[in-house]
# Entry
Amino acid sequence: GPYCRNSVPSAPLLVTNSSTVTVLFNSTSHRSGRGLLVSYATSQHPGMGAASPGMQRHPWDVPDPPLTMCFSVYCPAGCKDIHGDIWGNPRQGYRDTSVLCKAAVHAGVIADELGGQVTLSREKGITLYESAFANGLRSKRGSLSEKRLVFHKVCCFLSPACDDVLEVVTFNASSWWHEVDVLGQDRAWVAERAALSTTGHSWAAEPGAKAAWLELDLGTRRNVTGIITKGSSEQHDYYVTSYHVSSSRDGKNWRSYRGSSGQEDKVFEGNADSQGEVSNAFIPPIIARYIR
# Structure
């Protein structure tokens, strides 16, 4: 350097052996800008990545691609705390002005603690992007955009689709609440009512129960990539704010889920109200028949 605004540098590629780079910005009094976009690659991860220390203007670190063209970029660890907003959710995709790697954490395709390679496509935008809470991040509700970002999970074990909802053969629980209301009517908050599509009241453990658990029997060993939870709005504002997950292949020997760090049992952030759904990804996935 120095490099100035619209001038094309003779050597646009900067190479360093250091783990840190400091960039100094000087601007004249009559000009201002929204921020910057930095593209980089490392010897360990040759695929390009993008960092956005300021307000990001465009999430792409490559020239404008054709619609539905797929890309693979490397996202470093710690993208969850990058400055900038995301609009959308894992099911419908993200507004193309979203911070790319932060959206990848929200979508559950990478773990924030590790980062990793991300595969995505740029597709036709939609009218409205709905907000969602997933993997510890809250996305915003966004308006119409010309394009959107859609993340693709690499499916393991030849499963037909990563986003298939797995069928639960049997629900079991440590206990259940037998409620008698003020009119003397019985209501059973049994384990079978824990299915996400169930209308009315859900499952609830016996009041005062310690270390309560809900168990899902998938019938056979499956590749489980995540979980969606929701509260019960039947008369009461009930929901679970946090939980642990354990799994078993035979229903006898159980293993606590520790996530990508592997150091201690992972605590998943649950719901903040009884209405909305909250998604949490398992990275790495769980191979099991039983999930608690």
